[in-house]
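Hello Y.,

Per our agreement to keep a running log of every chain we model this quarter, I'm adding this entry. I've kept the format consistent with earlier entries: sequence first, then predicted structure.
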Amino acid sequence: DKEVRAIFLRLFAQLFQGYRSCLQLIRIHAEPVIHFHKAAFLGQRGLIENDFLTKVLNGMAFAGFVSERGPPFRTCDLFDELVAFEVERIKAEEGNPPKMIKHVRELAEQLFKNENPNPHIAFQKVPRPTEGSHLRVHILPFPRINEGRVQELLQEGLSRSQGAPPATRGDKKCVVPAGPPMGTFVCS
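Predicted structure for the entry above:
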């Protein structure tokens, strides 16, 4: 699963490399609007006649991509690093499948680490009951719940959470790296 995602991550990094240089921030409205200059992007890459890429850039998914990834100050991720710093590496690996596979596995490992930041926390599996276990007499019935004590615990937890500072997410915003200038790569 992660390796397939890593392959698509590389593909989109190659496809959209240099997209940040074609973003325009328009400040006419109360809130800035981000516009992607498609003609400049296709022209700088020498792909004006490329029907596939033109259709991708005209799609709704790409419009969402631009609105989500367009702001110059936001949380950066693995895709931003690939587009900004790994362009030359991806290009050099095109003719070398072992290096490409190694890079895909590195990306897959990073994707796994991003989704599982605490690998030491393992979920304990509950064993399946043995056959006939429901017929055993020695199993004690579940005790009755004391409703008053439950209410006390709820109130106690609520009072503690009201005094605590709000939980914040660990994502740190930064200036998104622009990557190499558009003229350094031309696709064939």
